[in-house]
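Quarterly update from the structural biology core.
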Amino acid sequence: MHEPFIEKSRLLIKFKKYDKAIEFLKKGLQNDIENPIYYDLLGRCYFHLKDFLTCQKFYQKANKLNTTNAMYWLRLAEVNLQLKKLDVAERHVKNCQEINPNLPDAYYLLAAISFEKRKYRIAIVECDKALKLFPEHKNSLELKGIVLTVLNQLDEAEEINKNALNINPNSEKALANYGWNELRKGNVEKAKELFIEILQKDPSNLHALTGYKNAIRGRNKLQKILMKMEILYSQSPFIRFLYFTSILFVSTIILIYRIENFSEPFGQLILDSLLFFFITLYIPFKVLPQFSVVILMRDKIGKQIISKRRKLSGLISLGVILLGILALFCSLLRDDIPPFLGMLIIMVGIWIIAVSYTHLTLPTNREV
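Predicted structure, tokenized:
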């Protein structure tokens, strides 16, 4: 009786007319409130509109009315993944697989959940399971390409990205993955061309936009070195351990030297050491790569990325840092100016940069 509402709504969803589809579905729902299909389709509309909380309510209702439908469990998992409820999403996928263990989308969602949890090796295993069931599964190929790039397995990532593009030449995500792969290899101009190609079609593509931000700050040798430092630091636990250990060691040596050679209160000595730790921690791997974008606004897309307010904050922070250096210099000439004051001012300047430019670093899981 109410099939026309459902069919018409499916057609509207196909043509991305979600608001109109919601109107039709709610009309049909008034006369058939126990039909899970209505709730499922409403959930899909709100999912595409990125209203994930409303989407979750409709998916839960559809699932409650029909607990044996594997796809209802799968969609519940998908929306919980978007809401960052990873354990709940994983549980829903397991429920789906108990009903139907041969759905590639279920293994893809498990891979996506593992990626969010930074369990990259498990994510690859789950992608492979999906691809074993369906070798041309687009989402699994694209995600595997991202994971391999994150793990710095660039040759394998390039092969996967090419396969994804062969299957779907218009895949913006696969093209962006290919751009990231070129960026990691140091082919900055090639990466930039790929990102621009995507951004010209879809300026809101976050994966490409983040990649382009990194590409524009890799134009000269110094910036390329800083980018490689950041990549190495982000990918190698040993490098991170070695770096933190060396920072702690240097801070301890400075603390001992200050205690033996200066008569300042012990609390100030501890503060000096802590300030030095945070300053040196931020400079090589966070602040310098982020701050370098301030001087790179030479093209149209670049100017759109960095707002005037953010560029102004960069210049202000530079002024604060110079003021801190001046204070440190004055502390050497005058006894009434404590050295920690200059270090404190420098730290304030660095934190202004860190807060202003945090989103310009390498991509997070959410961004990809």
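The CA atoms of residues 226 and 288 lie 7 Å apart.
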